[in-house]
Design brief:
The protein is mostly helical. It has helices at residues 3-30, 39-45, 56-63, 67-76, 94-104, 114-123, and strands spanning 53-55, 83-84, 90-93. The chain has 2 domains: 1-32; 39-104, no CATH class.
Length: 124
């Protein structure tokens, strides 16, 4: 192999390596899937029925936490009842989510959060 041939093969290897790296980055970006289905539209119209099944991502978005936090809640055993959509895909019914949220509600006077207490102290 001549010097020129080895330089060409090295350049081709570098080009293939770069193309693989770009392809991997594009794959990583594809993992971020937008919210499935017309959930935002249904929320605006207040048309969510108790029997409706939310996908896992929709359930996370509805409750305002990340998918990682959603997995943590479900694996802890303190989450809502899960519906198996397929062998690998899960969903949560709107009714089960509502009951889970009600079970997590805290009793107390109106505006009993930390900010409310701080606000009342500053007013007196």
């Amino acid at each position: 192999m001549t010097l020129r041939e080895s330089e060409l093969s090295r350049a081709q290897h570098a080009k293939r390596s770069h193309e693989k790296q770009v392809k991997r980055k594009k794959k990583r970006r594809k993992k971020r899937v937008p919210l499935e289905g017309p959930l935002p539209f249904l929320l605006c119209k207040r048309q969510l029925q108790d029997t409706q099944i939310l996908s896992f991502r929709q359930w996370c978005a509805l409750n305002g936490f990340s998918p990682r936090t959603g997995h943590r809640i479900l694996t802890s055993g303190n989450g809502p009842i899960v519906t198996m959509l397929t062998d690998t895909r899960i969903g949560i019914s709107v009714g089960n989510n509502r009951r889970w949220q009600e079970s997590r509600a805290r009793e107390g006077p109106t505006g009993s959060g930390d900010r409310a207490r701080h606000w009342r102290k500053s007013q007196t």
